Q: What sequence folds into this?
């Protein structure tokens, strides 16, 4: 499930054969010159973005919605209802706080928020319960499994812990929350293949910011050449007319 950051990227993933795509809160925030995870992008702005990807691509869209955009479980529930109203197929809710000095919510608070989200989501939208322990340097697999197991019990449909360190950790999570499916984040630096991930029971794979940074890397390389006077630096096999054709449908 690749993460798109605008209409054309969503259409290119669709053209490649993907049947669903996701937003990336980090990539989308970056396109606006903002940081992820601190509510620098409002709920409504992200909803507009996700709805745009839905309408442009015609594919099911999973919204990567930070901590659910709210201080209370009721606020998170309102976000889920808003996502359903805007036509999203899925929504992720993290256990982050937006405070780098205390980045992960207390266990009970996090569970209450997932339970509230699940009440709204039930049979209407796919809810992913996510813990960001490993993203924030909290390398505690036992607490990660405890949280994901509780989120599963609270009603999350899919469980997700980005940056799990190895296949053993992924397998442990899968066993702990079975039979509910597990999403994993992969990057170009990972050595495991898709087939290997499927063999141990991974049901969904997302790519995070890597599609966006891949595009930015090409821009960075071309910019360096342009700055030295190379006017051919932007030569590409992708013609903008093709993008226009994709938008036209």
A:
């Amino acid at each position: 499930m690749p993460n798109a950051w605008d209409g054309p990227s969503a259409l290119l993933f669709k053209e490649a054969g993907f049947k669903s795509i996701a937003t990336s809160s980090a990539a989308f925030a970056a396109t606006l010159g903002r940081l992820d995870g601190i509510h620098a992008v409002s709920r409504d702005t992200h909803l507009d973005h996700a709805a745009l990807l839905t309408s442009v691509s015609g594919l099911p869209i999973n919204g990567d919605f930070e901590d659910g955009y709210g201080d209370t479980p009721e606020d998170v529930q309102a976000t889920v209802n808003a996502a359903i109203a805007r036509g999203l197929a899925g929504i992720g809710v993290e256990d982050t706080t937006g405070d780098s000095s205390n980045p992960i919510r207390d266990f009970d608070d996090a569970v209450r928020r997932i339970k509230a989200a699940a009440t709204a989501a039930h049979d209407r939208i796919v809810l992913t319960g996510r813990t960001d322990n490993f993203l924030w340097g909290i390398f505690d697999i036992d607490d990660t499994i405890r949280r994901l197991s509780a989120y599963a019990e609270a009603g999350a449909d899919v469980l997700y812990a980005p940056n799990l360190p190895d296949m053993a950790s992924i397998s442990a999570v899968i066993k702990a929350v079975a039979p509910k499916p597990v999403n994993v984040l992969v990057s170009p630096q990972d050595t495991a293949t898709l087939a290997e991930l499927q063999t141990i029971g991974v049901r969904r794979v997302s790519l995070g910011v890597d599609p966006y940074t891949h595009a930015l890397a090409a821009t960075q390389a071309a910019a360096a050449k342009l700055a030295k006077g190379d006017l051919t630096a932007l030569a590409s096999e992708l013609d903008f007319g093709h993008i226009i054709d994709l938008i036209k449908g």
About this structure: The beta strands are 3-4, 21-23, 61-64, 90-94, 126-130, 158-160, 182-185, 204-206.
